[in-house]
Amino acid sequence: MSTLFFTIATGLAGGLALFLFGMHLISTGLQKAAARQVQQLLGAVTKNRFFGMLAGLVVTIFLQTSAVTTVLLVGFVSAGLMSLGQALGVILGAAIGSTLTAQLIALRLSDYALWAVVAGLVPYLFARRLRWHHLGQAILGFGLIFYGAALMGTAVAPLNTLPGFTTALRPLADHPWVMMLAATLFTGIVQASAATVVLAMTLAAQGALPLEPALAMVLGANLGTTATALISSIALSREAKRVALAHFFFKLAGVLLFLPFLGLYSHLSRLTSPDIARQVADGHTLFNIINMLVFLPFTPWVGRLMERILPDAPEEEKVAKYLEAKVLDIPELALARATQELLRMAGIIREEMFPRVMQPLAEREVELLEKLRGLDNILDYLYRAVARYLAQLNQGNLTDDQLVAQTRLLYIANDLEHIGDVVVEMAHQWRKIEASGVEFSPAGQAELQEMFNKVKENFTTAIQAFATGDEAMAARVIKGHPEILRLEKNLRYSHFQRLQQENRLSLETTSVHMDLINQLLRLNIHNVSIAQAVMGII
Fold first, then answer.
1. 473: closest CA among 107, 174, 46, 112?
2. Where does the record locate the signal sequence feature (predicted)?
3. Which of 8, 68, 301, 484 is deepest in the core (most CB within 10 A)?
4. What is the DSSP-derived secondary structure letter of residue 427?
């Protein structure tokens, strides 16, 4: 008896270990090979939740991980390019894509598992190009998950011969809530819902578990998979916490919806195939498809609910929220993290600094200059943090494209830091006006506001181009610079005309007026520099 138990435990633990290692190889290999393409795909569907759902499905089918998707979604939400509701549509699609592993296992490809190991090992060891090396790693991972699943199946086959096993399992099988909670806990520990689903498929295929409790395990696997995102979001931004909480909300609501109707759920799964292992895999897919159909129309409202549960918190000074050291060995993910931090810098400029710097004197905040200096200090710190983070990337592991992307990010970080400096200098000029007790002439104030609005619009366009990699949008900023130059000359000419007419307000504010025009021009030069970096003109 003890020998049989040891054999079963060894096969089950070893198979699970190979399965989890295979999943790791697949996700990291494909992340390294294709994270850039994933970013471009998600950036192209930021405005439509249905296409966002399809993008999430495609990305997760290809990568078999939601890690890259979540990283990029948080960045888009932080930059204001995607609402939380739109991001939630991508998450629902990603949940469907994550069921592919169980479907492949149900095809019983274990006979070809070792051939996949061989096919992946050759490019993994001998390929000279990094992309082929990473793809070989992913193929090797697929071989290991198939082989690990086969080992688990072989290990649990004798379970029915063990006296008392069915009796010991019956309390769980007779109480789906308990089975669901046990599967949730197991999934939270191994951090892979596919492992729990495959274990449920294996136990069902060997006759050790009926379909209904096996599907209760599937529900627990779907709920347990949210633990990873919830835990990892603790140290991340408020946007990341909202995405993780919404993911948990969708899964919990789905489980609470399905569990009381487990009999009907089982009946639908039986209709898909005569094979019970396939029924479990199909039940996993059915759960996520139905969950998507139920909740996709309500993603805007769920997004607003998450924002009420986790409202915006005051910005923490001198804290880099996105620069995770653990992804430095995956250059594309590290570059995406640095991009998110730069988008956060851009958000501080757009949301905190720009709205304040051009306010009329009567509406200006007390201690405005000190407030803008504090925000500029945050930008200075984040600039240094991003530069240090990017310097930690191993140059030998970077492709030529990644080296260019690294340089591009450093250029953009420098421009954002300088924009903060220029805004503070503008506030100094406004302080002079405030101290003098004389305001700009109405015409002069309107002209400055007109130029500022155009510069601010160009900044927003340049940052959107940076976030989405849209070179056409970046080109519009560059092509629009001559218009800003003409406007600058027109504003100078108009001001000097007012001086010739002996306009007292224009005379007393001439120095500040000219300095503000110069600083607005400097702001737009940095906008152009950001756009040029997006286009690779560095």
1. 46
2. none
3. 68
4. H
% residues pLDDT > 70 (the chain): 75
Amino acid at 424: V
Q: Read off φ and ψ for residue 328, nearest 5 degrees.
A: -65, -25
- What is the model's pLDDT at position 183? 86
- Give the model's pLDDT for residue 33: 58
Angstrom distances, CA of residue 262 to CA of 95, 291, 292, 422? 20, 15, 18, 62
Q: Is domain 325-535 classified as CATH 2.60.40.10?
A: no
Assigned token pair, 302: 């769920």
Phi/psi of residue 107, nearest 5 degrees: -75, -5
- For residue 178, is pLDDT > 80? yes
Q: What is the mean pLDDT of the chain?
A: 79
- Alpha carbons 538 and 527: distance in angstroms, whole number: 14
- The pLDDT assigned to 418 comes to 95
User: Of the candidates 376, 241, 380, which has an alpha carbon nearest to the alpha carbon of residue 322?
Assistant: 241
Residue 536: left if φ>0, alpha if ψ -120 to 50, beta else—which one?
Answer: left
3-state secondary structure 274-293: CCHHHHHHHHHHHHHHHHHH
321-344 pLDDT per residue, tens:
778 777 787 787 788 889 989 998
Q: How far apart are the first and last CA of the chain?
A: 70
Q: DSSP string covering 243-268, please?
A: HHHHHHHHHHHHHHHHGGGHHHHHHH
pLDDT, tens digit, for every residue of 115-170? 888 888 888 888 777 677 777 887 887 788 777 767 766 766 665 555 555 555 66
Could you state, in order of their start, the residue ranges of all structural domains in the chain?
Answer: 1-307, 325-535
Confidence at residue 38, expressed as pLDDT on a 0 to 100 scale: 58
Rounded distance between C-alpha atoms, residue 253 and residue 247, angstroms: 10
- Report the alpha-carbon distance of residue 96 to residue 256 in Å, rounded: 18
Retrieve residue 203's tokens: 């136990």
The Cβ of residue 501 has, within 10 Å, a number of other Cβ atoms equal to 8
